[in-house]
Amino acid sequence: MSSEDPRENDASDIPRRAPRLSSDQSRARVLASALSMLETTGLTVSLEHLSIEDLIRAADVPRSAFYRLWPSKDLFYADLLEHITIESEPSETPFDPTTLDVAAQTLQSNIHRLGTPDGRRAVTEEMLRLAGRRNIDALTASASWRDAFALVATINGVADPTQRENLVRALKAGDERRTQIMAAQYTQLLALLGCGLQPGVTAETLARVGARIIEGFAQGQMRRPDLDSTMIMRPGLDGEPVAWHPAALALWGAFQLLIDFDGPARATAPGTTKPW
């Protein structure tokens, strides 16, 4: 009878090699790990702070697999930027939920004013004052928006022309999708207000103008918060002075030229006041 310990031959004690990953699995792991690391560091104009060796360890893929997928760091960075662009697409709306709630609450509490063009103009003004301020506060506090802003600044640094074109194409497609979502929301909002659009103006125009104003002020506020966030006082709904964020004031200045406050009658029942 053998005195050999049977556990010495237990196959479960024999180290097993990790299953070989496909190229698609390796790529997905690396890109997911990069996004996770950037949640901590943030995206800068350069991606040099993103350690490839740390990334390979975090993704738990072989170094050979990484360099087979991306023979150079530049190729990896370009692929990562395109991945960030796709992953950052809005699932439902470019507006944060609080901005939408502020707009809906303003409409609800002032629905009795919508019977005249002057009333519709006043309610629209108040809605843009409150929702516009909330929107720019949310935007400047958003890490994903700051990453997107930095992303645009990296495009010219992508050496490979094909990948640079792919990145530009992805950014344009994302911008167009966001525009269409906002245009649909503005269309619903105008119907609730009982307003139309001036001749030659589309809901897409409204969406693009609004986005450019808010984003432009957000960029300026990052550079000089002491200037671009200084409130401006002017009469509000009841004639008393109220505070306006400069971005909201610029938004109102543009929108009152684009919106027809003598537009068609409200197409929605008075109790239906939240378009989103």
Mind explaining what this structure looks like?
This protein has 276 residues and is mostly helical. It has two domains: 19-71, Arc Repressor Mutant, subunit A, CATH 1.10.10; 97-260. The chain is 61% helix and 4% strand. The chain has eleven helices and four strands; from the N terminus they run H-H-H-H-H-H-H-H-E-H-H-E-E-H-E. Strand 2 (232-235) and strand 3 (241-244) form a beta hairpin. The longest helix is centred in the middle third of the chain and has 33 residues, at 161-193. It is elongated.
Element layout with pairings:
Elements: H1 23-41, H2 52-59, H3 63-69, H4 73-87, H5 97-109, H6 117-140, H7 143-154, H8 161-193, E1 196-197, H9 203-223, H10 225-228, E2 232-235, E3 241-244, H11 246-258, E4 259-260
Antiparallel strand pairs: 1-4, 2-3
Mean pLDDT: 80
Name the beta content range: under 5%
Helix percentage range: 55-70%
Strand line-up of the largest beta sheet: 1-4
N-to-C span: 79 Å
- Characterize the largest beta sheet: strand count, sense, and whether it forms a barrel: 2 strands, antiparallel
> Helical stretch count?
11
Content-based structural category: mainly alpha
Instruction: Give the overall shape.
Output: elongated
Task: Give the uncertain stretches in residue-range form.
Answer: 1-15, 265-273
Give the C-alpha Rg: 26 Å
Helix and strand run: HHHHHHHHEHHEEHE
Total number of beta strands: 4
Count of the separate structural domains: 2
Summarize the structure.
The protein is mainly α and 276 residues long. The chain has helices at residues 23-41, 52-59, 63-69, 73-87, 97-109, 117-140, 143-154, 161-193, 203-223, 225-228, 246-258, and strands spanning 196-197, 232-235, 241-244, 259-260. A hairpin with a 5-residue loop joins strand 2 (232-235) and strand 3 (241-244).
